Please model this.
Amino acid sequence: LGDVAQIAEQPGDRSRAYFAGTNPAVVIRVDRSAAGDAIGIQKSVEEVAAALRPTLPEGVSVDLVRTRSADISARLSILVQNGAMGLGLVLVFLFLFLNARTAFWVAAGIPVAMLAAVAFMYAAGLTLNMISLFALILTLGIVVDDAIVVGEHADYRARRLGEPPLVAAETAVSRMAAPVFSSTITTIIAFLGLMAIGGNFGRLIGDIPMTVTAVLA
Model:
């Protein structure tokens, strides 16, 4: 313990005692920092506890109590499942209501936008957690909306006006750039307003505006 804590001999304080069941216990509390990884910290604690158990005298054990890793993992799993379900439904409706070529290019833009957003988040020091995953799922529909607007206009110009596909795509991008840019900027500004919220709640949701900006920018 001397490697990780300061140890001093003091008179016993019998006004406070800890028990595990009916057995007297010594409690060592491990807290993470504001930027710490609760799941990674618990894994490290479990490894230390496993290495310590063989050295303990008979009748002494090391038990982990009040851990949060399982709850956090379960919530992350629910978010990932909901995100995958939402992405699946988006793809189904794209191919259901758009022609196959437009739907394909719109669908292809989704992973590109998300991977670019994750790379930007990594460069900015953001992590994938419950809040940032929620923000990624939230912006999924916005990314698809913008891609549909551009893709449908390009398809219209190619099919109805007879323009070559490359020319139709370039023209659609140039004509739709202003409205798509305007809608994107207004959305980013709306979410950046969340950064004005202070206190613990403000710190809790602070990843939402940054993640939305990373996806849409």
About this structure: The helical segments are 38-52, 69-97, 100-123, 130-159, 165-192, 199-204, 207-216. The longest helix spans residues 130-159.
